[in-house]
Design goal:
single chain, 113 residues, alpha/beta, five-stranded parallel sheet, 19% strand, globular, cell cycle
């Protein structure tokens, strides 16, 4: 099981697997069971955005256990949240914001073990 971080610019928190592009994120979601997924919306000019990943999650039905939206794009965050919220299974936790410092520390510590 992996923790996945989609962002084209920010550095990846310790213990998470970095995907710089939507396509890379989708491949990792297909290949691995994902516990935590943290999504950015804007992924560079001319590249599919985080909504592309969300659409693929909803279409495939392969949901991570916990989803966080760390994007600075308010409109992008709301669009991703609304689509995920209206389609996600009950067991999936959806957070309309970034991971907490406590969760980041927990993931980093588990990566050392």
């Amino acid at each position: 099981m992996i923790h996945l971080y989609l962002d084209d610019y920010r550095s990846c928190p310790k213990g998470l697997v970095l995907a710089r592009y939507a396509e890379e994120c989708i491949l990792l979601l297909q290949e691995f069971e994902v516990d935590v997924l943290s999504l950015d919306y804007d992924l560079g000019w001319g590249h599919p955005n985080g909504m592309h990943v969300v659409t693929q999650i909803v279409t495939s039905g392969r949901y991570p256990r916990r989803i966080y939206l760390h994007t600075s794009s308010d409109s992008g965050r709301q669009a991703m949240f609304q689509m995920l919220y209206s389609h996600k299974p009950d067991h999936v936790q959806l957070h309309n914001g970034p991971m907490t410092p406590e969760l980041l520390m927990e993931i980093a510590q588990s990566a050392q073990e």
